[in-house]
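Appendix C reproduces, verbatim, an entry submitted by the partner laboratory led by Prof. M.T., so that reviewers can inspect both the input and the predicted structure.
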Amino acid sequence: MVGTVNGNREYFEAAVRDLAMAEAQYPGWVARLLTHPVQGLDNYAQLIETLTSGGDVIKAFCEIAPFPNEDGRTAHLQRAVAAALMEKASELLAQPPSIQRVDVLADKLPNY
């Protein structure tokens, strides 16, 4: 899942823990929160459109596959997704985004 976080890595990690705890205590809750999935970063335009004009959107998110290597990740960060985000940044964000490399902090469990 790719998302924006108005905080640092510590806040993001806390959010991952909180969502996991909520799902453990209230099965199905996270699926009801994550209302608008978009498949793959190549569909970035759909994600941007959903974020900017979706009236019933609780949480839009993008499901992605991991990059096979660092070269793939670097090439992706320099292409259309980053350009589209920067183009819409003034509409979507209070300040310009900082696009950073991150490691996987959470992953979907099989059959979950």
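The mean pLDDT is 75. Additional entries are available on request from the coordinating office.
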